[in-house]
Amino acid sequence: MPAFAHRAGGPAPGARNVPCPETPARRPRRRSLRRPLLAALAALPLAATPALADVSPALEAELRQAAAGERVTAIVTLEAAAGATAAPGADAERVLRAQRGATARAERALDLPAGVRVAERFWVAGAVMVEGTPDALRALGEADGVAELDADPLVRLAETTPVSGQMSPGAGNWGLGAIRAQQVWSALGLDGSGVRIGSIDTGVDASHPDLAGKVVAWRDFVGGRATPYDDNGHGTHTIGTMVGGRPGVTPVGVAPGAQVLVAKALSANSWGRGSDLLAAGQWLADPDGNPATPDHPTVINNSWGSDASQSTWYRQMVRTWRAAGIVPVFAAGNNGPGPSTVMNPASYPESIAVAAHDSGNRAASFSARGPVIWQNLDGTGPAAGTDLGKPDLAAPGVGITSTVGGGYAAYSGTSMAAPHVAGVVALMRQANPGLSPDQIHAVLRETATDIAEPGQDTSTGTGRVDALAAVMRAAGIESVPAPPAPPAAEPAPVRSPKATPRRPDQRQAVRVELSARQMQINQRIAQAAMRRVNEVLARLGEPVPAPSGSRRGGRIELTPGQLLINQRISQAAVRRAHEAQLLLEGRRPATAASAARRSQGGVKLTAAQLLINQRISQAALRRADALMERTERMGLDAR
Predict the structure, then answer these.
(1) 142-195 pLDDT, tens per residue?
(2) Nearest in space to 323 (alpha carbons), one of 289, 286, 290, 378
(3) Which of 78, 79, 376, 508 gives 20 to 30 Å between its CA and that of 526?
(4) Which residues make Cβ contacts (< 8 Å) with residue 55, sequence separation at least 6?
(5) What distance in Å separates the CA atoms of residue 521 and residue 498, rounded to the nearest whole number?
(6) What is the DSSP letter of 363?
(7) What is the rounded average pLDDT of the residues 82-111?
(8) Which residues pair with 373 in a beta bridge?
(9) ∠ CA 296-302-307 to the nearest 5 degrees?
(10) Which residues of 351-367 are buried (b: 16+ CB within 10 A; e: fewer)?
(11) Residue 80's pLDDT is what?
């Protein structure tokens, strides 16, 4: 039962624990509705009569209620197309062509009974929507090549609760500081520029000043309107958390330089169809219908889901996304705090399931909990009984200020947490476009900061997402550990630092001296990296700036201005190294208007910032050395 994983309103500390919170909840058509759906379907005797092997209980209930000649809509999962993708390592074009071809072949082999016709094709998910009489659909359920036959329900969930708005963002989104997003902007010069994010939601108010010019593609699967709109507000809020921001105004989005492709598949009155969600996911996988065009987003945010964690109705869609290089981010759900309440598709092995925490680093009471013990109902693995480690991680989700029509508002829910993670993925892909979804999934989990019991837990996964650590890992830079999170429990026992467990992947913090000498060392590392990168580019026939005089230079002063100069030298070296790597791989670097936006204003003169700059410089130097060796093996000399 797809439901919006969001609670409207401010950061009320005693949030109510309700299965479907006050703000829009949606239900797409499900492939396996093996539990009662909600009060709206409570009257249907879903489990009273055994259904055919390939006909879901939900569809069987509809067929029993339909008149003999009445036409009923159903979704067919094609056996031969389920799990069909290109070979591992294939590019997006081959993945999409392979999935399209497998679905087409499976459909041609399907023997449709008389009276059944194909109404719509969802090749990305290996499925088709059909229409037919009850008897004809039952016959189809017994046909060869049908993995499953399910209903396409239209179910209204909870009403939207009006929220009080405000004309300015006020103090902004507290979540940005909690996940260290602002340090990514200032220390690494990355803000998501050149990266595209996908959204499946209620739409977007593209005229909002914080989102102006950022909506680059739009498709309405509910009303068919040609121009962007949001008749609910939920979609505008989640998109604001991903990309919202403009000069001179307190930012609300994690990756304000990124752009967004918006699919409206959920309506104003809290209604949603599974077929609309399938169509939306398919469009985002290939927006222009040409697999050869790399126009799909790098990550798709999905702040909706179903309470049946084992239902695999959307799994092939998620698999195809991931095979094509698209990272699937899903809200874990607001069904908590009971165990095993993570929704699907967040519950899938391939999805990144995001829980919510509050400003005190406590898991939100409404946030869905694990574990997800996989039952392998579709037979494609992992083995039945596998603990999938859900949720994967947590993000700020209580009292999150973001964009809505006419201004800003604070909402709470895992719907608000998920777009924080989607924004971090955009920053990671800007730092390293070559990262695969598998690598991104692993880095997010490994670099998260524990905020509950040590290690993986069923409330916050591996911990709070850490944008700075994740992006630095993505860029090949040794990360600076985040400050320890305040204890989540109240009252909290005082622990000795020696007794605080540390994950194996977390390196011991390294201290640097806050001095002019240390700043000069960092400057020379950055300058050396830039010289070597420029030499590599010269060997590749690329234009490089003329040498700027003495290598050593004079003494430098310990000032924020000098720190910013050094930082920008090292940032430029990292960017130029990435350009050289793309050229060596036969790819021309993108000519975005702002490949990496400079931080606005100064930087804080602290030892931690000095250490970050040092590691950026060291990473640039290591990458430059590797590129130099590669050009030497290729026999390239300076031109």
Answers:
(1) 888 898 888 885 533 323 333 456 778 888 899 999 999 999 998 888 999 999
(2) 286
(3) 508
(4) 63, 137, 138, 141, 149, 150
(5) 32
(6) B
(7) 83
(8) 387
(9) 145
(10) bbbbbbbbbebbbbbbb
(11) 83
Q: Contact 306/315 with Cβ under 8 angstroms? A: no
Judge whether 210 counts as a catalytic residue: no
Q: Is the pTM of this model over 0.85?
A: no
Q: How far apart are CA 396 and CA 174, in angstroms?
A: 8
**How far is the C-alpha of 597 from the C-alpha of 251, rounded, in Å?**
15
Instruction: Decide if 276 contacts 240 (C-beta within 8 A).
Output: no
Residues composing the chain: 639
Locus of tokens 């509950």? 452
User: How much is the pLDDT for 4?
Assistant: 52
Name the catalytic one among 234, 296, 420, 441. Answer: 234
How open is the CA angle 384-389-394, to the nearest 5 degrees? 150
Catalytic one among 306, 415, 459, 570? 415
Query: Within a 13 Å sphere around the CA of 362, how many CA atoms are in the beta-carbon half?
Result: 14
Contacts of 612 (CB under 8 A, 6+ apart): 183, 187, 468, 472, 480
Give residue 99's identity as a one-letter amino acid code.
Q
Neighbours of 534 (CB within 10 A): 20
Q: What tokens appear for 617 in the block?
A: 């410089």
Is 207 or 557 the better-scoring residue by pLDDT? 207
**40 is written with which tokens?**
């709206």
- What are the pLDDT digits (tens) for 549-566? 444 445 556 676 666 666
In this structure, what token pair is assigned to residue 293?
A: 């065009």
- Mean pLDDT across the stretch 339-362? 94
Distance (Å, rounded) from C-alpha 74 to C-alpha 128? 9
What one-letter code names the amino acid at 248? G
Residue type at position 6: H
As separate numbers, helices (DSSP H) first and strands (DSSP E) second, the chain gives 14, 18
As a whole number, the mean pLDDT across the chain is 78
Nearest CA-CA partner of 75 in 18, 135, 32, 41? 32
Provide the pLDDT for residue 56. 82
Residue 558 CA to residue 251 CA, distance in Å, equals 29
The three-class DSSP label of residue 558 is coil
Q: How confident is the model at residue 497 (pLDDT cuts 50, 70, 90)?
A: very low
Of residues 279, 284, 350, 366, the one with CA closest to residue 4: 366
Distance between CA atoms of 620 and 622, rounded to whole angstroms?
Answer: 6
Q: Name which of 358, 354, 481 is nearest 417 in CA terms.
A: 354
Query: CB-based contacts of 7: which residues, under 8 Å, 6+ apart?
Result: 15, 21, 22, 23, 334, 366, 411, 412, 413
pLDDT in tens, 229-251: 999 899 999 999 999 999 888 88
Residue 634 token pair:
């290729």
Q: Which residue of the set 150, 201, 220, 276 is catalytic?
A: 201
Quote the pLDDT of residue 33.
30
The whole-number pLDDT of residue 447 equals 95
CB burial class (10 A; 0-12, 13-18, 19+) of residue 635?
exposed
CA gap 80, 594 in Å, rounded: 45
Look up residue 254 and give its two tokens. Answer: 């994690």
Is 201 noted as a catalytic residue in this protein?
A: yes
What distance in Å separates the CA atoms of residue 468 and residue 176, rounded to the nearest whole number?
11
The residue with greater pLDDT, 58 or 284, is 284
If one counts every other C-beta atom within 10 angstroms of the C-beta of residue 419, the result is: 35
